[in-house]
Automatic annotation (TrEMBL):
Bilayer topology term: Single-pass type II membrane protein
Alphabetical list of InterPro entries matching this protein: LexA/Signal_pep-like_sf, Pept_S26A_signal_pept_1, Pept_S26A_signal_pept_1_CS, Pept_S26A_signal_pept_1_Lys-AS, Pept_S26A_signal_pept_1_Ser-AS, Peptidase_S26
Domain of life: Bacteria
Enzyme Commission number(s) from the entry: 3.4.21.89
Record-linked NCBIfam families: sigpep_I_bact
Enzyme class: hydrolase
GO cellular component: plasma membrane
Protein name: Signal peptidase I
Length: 179
């Protein structure tokens, strides 16, 4: 009987620790739509680290979940940080004048002769865009089918829910690195 009491106490403690971790440190998120393909797919279940950015800065290429408005959260890739200059020219991304290799797009980039990421204008500014202090420029990986900073503008850093750490469903797509 002592053996079972120890086991029951251990299981209860493990469940309580899991609940605390889930409630305060991580959030579960379901991907809706195709804007992050081929990195994330509609219906993928993600584990989002809610406290990471309390200790560290956001980095370019991080995949984040953020509050788009009071009802909707979006998942996108961070392209530009405060002070960065963003430009897309001839289907190539430039940050601060340097070409950014986006090999994660290769799987989806069609070979149909059409541009995958159009040169874009934001809030009447053509060409190079500067990211304001306290904000980020985000884009979906599926550049032809993504509602992102190209259409709704910059996002406030304070709107970030967290960084995508794990894709845990479906199990066949289990992953922890998204680059």
């Amino acid at each position: 009987m002592k053996k079972y009491k120890h086991l029951i106490r251990t299981v209860i403690l493990a469940v309580l620790v899991a609940i605390v971790f889930r409630a305060y440190f991580f959030a579960s998120y379901v991907v809706e739509g195709e804007s992050m393909e081929p990195t994330l797919y509609d219906g993928n279940l993600l584990m989002v680290n809610k406290v990471l950015y309390d200790w560290t800065d956001v980095h370019r290429q991080d995949i984040i979940v953020f509050h788009y408005n009071n009802e909707d959260d979006y998942v996108k890739r961070v392209i530009g940080l405060p002070g960065d200059h963003i430009a897309v020219k001839d289907d190539r991304l430039y940050v601060n004048g340097e070409f950014v290799e986006e090999d994660y797009l290769d799987e989806l980039r069609p070979n149909d002769g059409r541009v995958f990421t159009n040169d874009f204008t934001l809030e009447g500014v053509t060409g190079r865009i500067e990211v304001p202090e306290g904000e980020l420029f985000v884009m979906g990986d599926n550049r032809r089918d993504s509602l992102d900073s190209r259409s709704f503008g910059f996002i406030d850093i304070q709107s970030i829910v967290g960084k995508v750490e794990v894709r845990y469903w479906p199990m066949s797509q289990l992953g922890m690195k998204f680059r």
